[in-house]
Structure formats: structure tokens, C-alpha cells
Amino acid sequence: MTKQRMLLWIVITVLLAGMVLPAHAAPGPKEPAPKVGQKAGAITALLPIATISRGTGKAVVTNEAKKGDELWWNDLVKTQKGGRARITLTDQSILSLGAQSDLRIVKHDDRSQQTALQLVGGRMRAEVAKITRQGGSFELRTPTAVAGVIGTDFGSDASSVGITVFLCIAGIVQVANNDPNVPGSVQCAPGLTTSVSAGKPPTIPSNATPQQIQQLIQDTEPAIISAISPSSVSAGTTVDAAIGGSKLVAVNAVSVDGTGITATLSGAPTDTSVTVHMVIAANATPGPRTVTLRKPSGAASAAVFTVMQPPTAVQTGDLKKPYHDSFDQERQSTKAGMTALIASVQQAVDQTLQQLQTANQGNVVDLGPATASLNQQIAAIQNLINQAGGQVDQAVSSALATFDTQYMVAYNALLQRNPAGAPDDTFNQALQAAYNQVNASLGQAFADINNSLGSNAQSATTTVNQVQQTWMTTITAA
After folding, report:
1. Cα gap 400→341, rounded to integer Å
2. Cα 236 from chain centroid?
3. What is the pLDDT of residue 14?
4. Cα angle vertex 451, ends 346, 260, to 5°?
5. Is the pLDDT of residue 6 over 70?
6. What is the mean pLDDT of residues 190-216?
7. Is-contact 196 186, C-beta < 8 A?
8. CA atoms of 250 and 132, how far apart (whole Å)
């Protein structure tokens, strides 16, 4: 081969190499990183803004998350302030992330039913598919704890430094410190809560309040939060619940999580309200439930209400106690439901601030006054909720007094029939009738309180939208 032909082949080889190399170059900042391992699931619901980070070291690529995005082993999903995300794993387990949360899907193999997750920080609710295969496992690690489950519904809050709080809604969660040198573990049963601090064993599980469980659902629900009235209902009843919010006129479907409840839309939705007809079976599991309203566009709003176990008569001890306990449970559930109003306004404020900050790149205007104006709306609603909480307490106190008066009438009649005071069917029926009458009046009082709060929350949301429009105009002009 002559020198000229050899030089020509060298030039051709270099040119071909230059044409091939770009196909193997590292992806650009807006391109997805290589998929690692296998598919773990997908983003199935989203409130902006969230990101997905893929890869390791300097090869990490971060993109803004979109509904429908696939997730692969070792992907890191991160929500920003005001953001929420729902991840559906390939085995149909559901992970709901709250705002400012970081979750890494270390591994998820639906064939072997082996899952490993790492909650770096923030809040998450996990509705885990039941594990049936031998050797299957579902493990969640946080900065302080490790939790193993078989098939359950639980929440984890690692938003505070040095401590993780678990709330167990259904099934059993085995909780321990993530440091193997720290001995001890506990079983967290439904309705209980436990916490794990750095270097310490888990606390003894204690009863979770309705407010804690309701707050967990609201903090992790990837939908616009709305208020519902009534916010608590007894098993074995039928109710028309009014859900108040914004942009609801397009709602065309409703669903309720869990079993034992059927829900249908009643009447035509308006922009600010939807009525849902719910039939609660007598064997419906007590506890908080999520009502989800859907639109043709795929957007959703959600409200949280509580199914209560109706009181049952007792033969010995304090005969009034089951009924008093039921009134008190309604008090707690109604107060917990009020937090939905502050959550809805907070969501609107968070999204508005995100949009203003995105539009205000380069800090062309000072957004301090806008932030202060928006926070005023949250503070105003919080003050109204505090006042309404006092009104709820007064309504329950009045209901208890009325019930106790009717109880004494029934009890004195019982003593005339049976001086020993042993309850009979007539007495139990009188007690149930008194409870039903008083409870109906109490429910109307709660509805009036909630309706007033709902109107104020709607006004606050309208003000938030006006603030957004005003400052977007200011930013554009600047």
C-alpha cells in the first residue's frame, strides 16, 4: 500500500469514528439517562413540580417529571414545595409522595416480589400489594429507620432531622432502627403510630389520632384538596356529601378508596361544589377514606372523610359511654376535616409562588410583597379554623347535655320496670332513638360550620388567583 492510500484510509477511519462516537456520548441535560436494571413503575399522578434523577456520580441526569413517565431501578423522585407525586409500581403497589420529599426506588422486582425503597426525606404513604411468594419482601429505609411489610397501608414521615414517624392504617409494619447495632423492633398495628430516633429503638406503639391519619392522607394526596361536609359518617348509613373547591364544573366521575362504600355523583357539578351520594355498608371498615373527583382531562380533586363505627348498647358499666365516645369521635373527625381547607389554600399558594418564581428568573422584581400577601390568606383561614374548632366543641357539649337529659328519662323509666336497672330492649331502643335524634342535629351544626369555612376558603383561593394575575402582569412589564 502506497503512503498516499494509507493516509487516505487513516483519514476515512477517523471520519467514521467521529460519526459513530456521538451515538455513545453521554446524554445531554434534557435527555434521559440510560435505564438501569429494569422497569419499576410509573408516575401516575402529579402536582407540579417534581423531578426524576437517573444515573450515578457525574452521569446523573435530572429531568422534570411528567405524568406517565416510566421509573427504573435506582431512580430518585423528588417533589418540590407544593409538589405531590403518585407512583404505581409494576405490582400495583401505590406510593404517594408529599411535598419536598425524596424517594429512591432501589429495587422493585414484581416477579420475586422483592422491593427496596429509600425515603431520603419528606413524607410518603405506601399502599402495598400483598406479598404471596416465599422470599418476597417490601423494605423501606429512612435516615433513622427500616420498616418491613407484607401487605399494608402505612405512612412514613422523615421530614424532621433525626427522627422518622410511622402511621399504620392497615396491616402490620415491622419497624426497627436502621443501625443494626441498635437492638429492638416493634410491630405497628392498624391505628397505631411509632417513631424511631437516631441511635434509639422504636417507641412503643400508641394510638394515632384521627387528625394524624387525616393529615397523612392530605399531605401525600397528589390531587387538589377540597373540603367535604359532612366529614364523618357512620357505617350502615347513606349520605349526600357536599364537596367544595374550585374548578369542579368538569367533574364527571367519583371514587372512594377501600371497600364497603359506593359513591355516585348527585346532580350537576358547579364550579365550586359537587354533591356525592354515598352508601356506606354496615361492615365498612372504620377510619379515614379518600373521595376522588375526576375530570375528562385527568385532573383530580380529593377530599377526606371518616367512616365511624356506630355505637352499640352495653349491659354493664357506664351505659352512656359508647354514645359519648361516638360524639367525641365525631368531634375529632370534624376538626381533622377542617385541615383540608388550610391544605387547599396552601396548595394554591405553593403553586402560585412556584409559577411566579419561574416567571421571575433573574429576579427582575421583588416578590417579597407577593409572598407576604399570599401568606396572609393562609393565616386568615387558620384563624377561622381555630374559631370553628371552638364552635365544634360547643356543639358537641350541647349535644352531650341533650343526650344525657334524654338518657335519664329512659333510665328512670327502666328503673320502674326493673329496679335493678338491668338494660332491656325498650331501654336500648330509647337510647338509640335519642342518639339518632341528637346526632342528626349535631350533624346539621357541623354542616353549617363547614359551609361557612368553605365559603371563606373559596374566597381566599380567589384572592390567591388575583394576586398571581397581578404579579404576573408586573413581572411581564418589568
Report:
1. 27
2. 25
3. 35
4. 85
5. no
6. 93
7. no
8. 41
Beta bridge partners of 145: 177
Name residues whose C-beta falls within 8 Å of residue 13's C-beta, 6 or more positions apart in sequence. none
Strands (E), 48-113: 50-54, 61-64, 70-72, 75-79, 84-89, 94-97, 102-109
Residue 447's pLDDT band, with cuts at 50, 70 and 90, is confident
- Rounded to an integer, what is the distance from CA 214 to the centroid of its chain? 8
Percent of the residues in the chain that have a pLDDT greater than 90, as a whole number = 67
Rounded to whole angstroms, the Cα distance separating 305 from 291 reads 8
The CA–CA distances, whole Å, from 26 to 60, 70, 456 equal 10, 20, 53
Using a 10 angstrom Cβ sphere, with 0-12 exposed, 13-18 middle and 19 or more buried, the burial of residue 344 is buried
Per-residue buried b or exposed e for 201-239, using 16+ beta carbons within 10 Å of the residue's own CB: bbbebeebebebbbbbbbbbbbbbbbbbbbbbbbbeeee
CB count, 10 Å around CB of 448? 13
Residues 6+ apart with CB under 8 A from 355: 468, 472
Instruction: Identify whether the C-beta of residue 47 lies closer than 8 Å to the C-beta of residue 67.
Output: no
Do residues 120 and 104 touch, judged by C-beta distance below 8 A?
A: yes
Alpha-carbon distance values, 346 to 196, 224, 297 (Å): 29, 10, 23
CA distance 368 to 356: 11
| SS3 of 146-198 | EEEECCCEEEEECCCCCEEEEEEEECCEEEEECCCCCCCEEEECCCEEEEEEC
What's at 154, amino acid-wise? F
d(CA 169, CA 208): 9
- Annotate 408-451 with DSSP letters as a single string: HHHHHHHHHH-TT----HHHHHHHHHHHHHHHHHHHHHHHHHHH
Of 47-51, 153-157, 425-429, the one with minimum mean pLDDT is 47-51
Q: How far is CA 127 from CA 93, 192, 268, 294, in A?
A: 6, 16, 32, 20
String of DSSP letters for 225-275: E-EEES-EEETT-EEEEEEE-SS-TT--EEEESSSSEEEEEES---SSEEE
Contact 396, 325 (CB under 8 A): no
Q: Is 222 helix (H, G, I), strand (E, B) or coil?
A: coil
Instruction: Please tell me the pTM assigned to this model.
Output: 0.82
